[in-house]
Amino acid sequence: MTTDYVAVDNVRKVFNAGRRGEVEAVAPTSFRIEAGEFVSLLGPSGCGKSTLLMMVAGLEDPSEGAIRVGGKPMSAPRAQTGIMFQDPTLLPWKSALENVLFPFRAMNRPVGPYIDHAKALLDEVGLEGFHDHKPRQLSGGMRQRVAICRALVYQPDLLLMDEPFSALDAITRDEMNLVLMKIWQEHHRTALFVTHSIREAVFLSDRVLVMSQRPGRVIEDIRIPFARPRGLEIGETAEFNRICGHLRGKIQHRRH
Amino acid sequence: MVSAVDTTPLTAAPVGLAFDHARSIALPIVFGAGLLLLWHLAAVGFQIPKVILPTPGDVFTALVNNAGTIWQQTIPTVRDTLLGFGLATVLGIGLASLLSFSRLLRDAIYPLVIVIQLVPKIAWTPLFIVWAGIGWQSRLTIATFICFFPIFIAMVAGLESTDRSLVRLCRGLTASTWRTFWLVRLPGSLTYLFAGLKIAITLSVIGVIVAEFISSSEGLGFLILKSAALLQTDMILAAITVLCVVGLICYGVVHAGEVAVRRWRGE
Fold first, then answer.
1. Structural domain containing residue B162
2. A57 to chain B: which residues are within 8 Å by CB?
């Protein structure tokens, strides 16, 4: 029996195929994610890592190759996947709590049974007392916290994150990494995290996949050995910096 | 660890702001009163005949003395204005929504609507009277027709302005097209809609008055035309005054709706 939860096999993505301006965003690439694993896709901007994530989410179709999630081939978005985008993408006219409950409304399911769960999630990410605030009244970091809760509230078995903290300042970003780490340890979903920050990838992940310049493909797959739970202090260790240096070398090496 | 954005409401306005607010109300009132005074002085000073330019006092007297008649004529005008506006709102939102579901329909119909709207809509009035007769039906048709375009165009713009990332989120959540429309696109388009509604409500009054000019035996438009024939200038101005108030109230209600929507959106 295999424990692979996500299987990406020779997936390739070409935009505007056969037309002028044809762009190969993702070169044929393969990787696996085990159930319960936190995996980061690390690469320079424009390398196709977000495209790859969108294909795993079912929001883009691969031009070639196949993706299987939970043993089933992907052809359309599935209700058991939680997604976080670069922007929080909250409904501006709804409160934080209502935004967290939005997935149930979107799927046309009753929200009643989940209100307590949604409130508990908001408290867990440090938003006690902000349940009824509108997105406009929240800071950027707080909005992404709401988005984390929204991605988790319907208890998806796969969490996909597309550079969710890239728009935040460095301090807030460290804070959000801790929040994500803590909540992931508690809920333990299989996770795929796209980032261009080497330190963020190493800090959060069980494994880091490095992608090449466009057309992107996975060129390196390394295991991050730190035990969990992790604190920000692991970022100061020699081992951490050695791994980061190695990854930086991989990204830069392939650039030329 | 968590830092909130300043959420102090603006109601606790400093003195300077309260003064600005008072000024913005008082200034036009004072200026308007000044104009009335000037009008009065001109009419009296140059001894302009009442039939050409009655004084503001004359107009007020005409208004009071004919309150019953004017009120009677106000009812059909307001009725047709509101019915036309309401009907156009339903049709405008309905058609715009329909087009948002189908790229094909949108590309086929939207340019045609824009072309039709380029023709001065008042020019259609006699045709509607031919089709719908000289009763309230034709006036309602004209009001609806004239109101429809700004509402429709604003609604199409509103629906097309929907945040793409929100639509993508819905798709990721396996929401149906209808759910996405209901939860995201429709509420997202409301501020645009109100911009259209504000234009439409003023146009509705214009449509009804023009229709009453052309063929009617009731309404403020009819009253103005009849008074003109009898050279009752004070009566014309009294009717126009009432029309002003009617227009203001209608616009105010739509504006209040807009404010409520903005507040609901957390703006």
1. 62-264
2. 172
